[in-house]
Write a structure and sequence with these properties.
Shape: globular
Number of strands: 2
Structural class: mainly alpha
Order of helices and strands: HEHHHHHHHHHHHHHHHHHHE
Radius of gyration: 22 Å
Distance between the termini: 31 Å
Strand order of the largest sheet: 1-2
Largest sheet: 2 strands, parallel
Length: about 500
């Protein structure tokens, strides 16, 4: 069932360096997937946000982690989910899945991450006025530093996500510890057991945010060809990092809820409001700590964006080298750096363009943050409508494939886990693209403009318009990839692809 790679794809794989070890992968995934940007947004739903975070951890994160721990250990080609979808449903489906996964990252970096970094700088350091020259300059510098960090050879660049992951977890530990100290000294926001009761509004509103927070642990397979032992390390990386992620969301969200009244929590400022409150226990040192927090936060956000670009840009480059995206131009890895520099720069251009468009959406940074975050959530979730069924199908049709890690369930049990995850993804995708359409069916009130700060027309033009542009881009890219697809290699006419170990001489062109 496995599709034969093109000659160009095999050539690119020969440029790869095997530099990622087990713990490199764990830190890369934590740096990429554990996000601070969703903490405040989820917490706006009050105490039930904690309930839904726990529900999704049990009924989505666990089966999802097991599903891809097995799939990722069995299918270890560079390109990850692109190759899985291609093998299960063909190159067209693989091209769509790769495009949706890849474009999420520049949209997210240029929109949500750049805006959150600016807000973090604003809150505790120098004020940057919305729409000013300094505002544009700060966001542009943030975007292109993120891109440059992704371009660095993975042999050295892997240390940036490692440091970012350590700093991120340290910040969350400090925040949770400070919240405990604050609660002991000043008490907590009054929350009754009923406040944690789930509602339809909470389900439909928090689900896409939480899915976005929990997804992506299989994305390390995009660099599987650069791992020292992917069959062994992928399950370890996915299961360990997803466990850390669950704690990194549950504990901080609960901490925000007990120190900040629900009416005062905003999507972009929730985390900052909470840290300003809990750091007050440090007295005169609080101001200096908050300034240091802002500097660390900008660094963490940059390393998070770079980690995702390291992963997703490789997937898109492999898709291009396989004839699924704009011929062979974007399917080239730099021979010296072993990184997809052309796709890296394309990500920077897309991130910049999306930031410039988003700046014209509305005058409020908080509103822009929420809408742009939803765009990134939408494209990311939609990709899994192909990736999850592919994992299910490969379990049944690739029976002879060695599976170093195997979930101890039958094929039917494996499929049930997958379809449970698919249900959550389908629900999250619908309410991300068309928010406020399900609530009235269950008798729940929903004020669209009060929730989003923009009209439904503006929101849908931006959301659906983005998807239409992506569809056109994907069609054009696939058509132009036809010459590359015609060079599908065979054992007789192409040298075997292999990744070099770090330090091995670079093969001559």
């Amino acid at each position: 069932m496995t599709a034969t790679p093109t000659a160009l794809a095999q050539e690119q794989e020969s440029k790869l360096l095997k530099t990622l070890g087990r713990f490199d992968l764990v830190f890369l995934l934590i740096a990429a997937v554990v996000g601070l940007e969703t903490l405040g947004a989820v917490s706006t739903y009050g105490a039930e946000a904690f309930t839904w975070t726990l529900v999704l951890a049990v009924f989505f994160l666990i089966p999802y982690g097991l599903l891809f721990a097995e799939t990722g250990a069995a299918f270890t080609e560079e390109g990850g989910a692109y190759t899985w979808v291609r093998n299960a449903y063909g190159r067209v489906a693989g091209a769509i899945a790769a495009l949706l996964t890849w474009v999420t990252q520049p949209v997210w970096v240029g929109g949500s991450m750049a805006f959150l970094a600016t807000e973090g700088w604003n809150v505790n350091l120098t004020e940057i006025h919305d729409g000013s020259f300094a505002d544009y300059a700060f966001k542009l510098v943030f975007i292109w530093l993120t891109v440059l960090a992704a371009i660095v050879s993975l042999r050295y660049g892997k240390w940036l996500p490692t440091v970012g992951a350590i700093v991120k977890v340290a910040l969350l530990v400090l925040f949770v510890g400070s919240a405990i100290a604050y609660a002991i000294k000043h008490g907590v926001v009054h929350l009754s057991f009923g406040d944690f009761s789930p509602t339809w509004v909470g389900l439909f509103g928090a689900t896409p945010l939480l899915l976005f927070a929990y997804l992506g642990f299989e994305s390390g397979n995009s660099a599987a060809g650069e791992m020292k032992n992917p069959a062994r390390d992928v399950p370890f990386g996915i299961l360990r990092s997803s466990g850390v992620a669950a704690l990194c969301y549950l504990l901080p969200i609960f901490s925000i809820l007990i120190v900040v009244p629900p009416s005062e929590i905003t999507g972009i400022g929730g985390f900052f409001d909470a840290t300003a409150t809990v750091f007050s226990v440090y007295g005169g040192a609080a101001d200096a700590m908050l300034k240091m927090l802002s500097v660390c936060l900008v660094f963490v956000l940059m390393t998070q964006g770079a980690s995702w670009m390291i992963i997703s840009d490789r997937m898109q480059a492999i898709a291009a080298a396989d004839g699924a995206f704009f011929g062979g131009f974007f399917g080239v890895f730099n021979r010296r750096l072993s990184t997809p520099v052309r796709v890296n720069f394309l990500s920077g251009i897309v991130a910049t363009a999306f930031m410039l468009v988003a700046m014209q959406l509305t005058g409020s940074s908080a509103d822009i943050f929420g809408v742009v975050l939803t765009i990134a959530i939408t494209t990311f979730l939609l990709s899994y409508l192909l990736v999850i069924p592919a994992a299910i199908k490969l379990r049944s049709v690739e029976r002879d494939r060695e599976r170093p890690f195997r979930v101890p369930v039958s094929d039917r049990g494996f499929a049930l886990m997958g379809w449970l995850c698919f249900f959550w993804i389908a629900l999250g995708s619908w309410v991300a693209v068309f928010p406020g359409t399900l609530e009235p069916l269950f008798g729940a009130d929903y004020d669209f403009e009060d929730t989003w700060g923009v009209s439904r027309t503006t929101f849908e033009v931006f959301t659906v318009g983005t998807l239409v542009v992506l569809l056109v881009l994907g069609i054009v890219g696939y058509i132009l990839g036809a010459p590359v697809r015609r060079t599908v290699s065979t054992d007789d006419d192409a040298p075997p692809a292999h990744a070099r170990s770090a330090g091995e001489p670079t093969p001559l062109s």
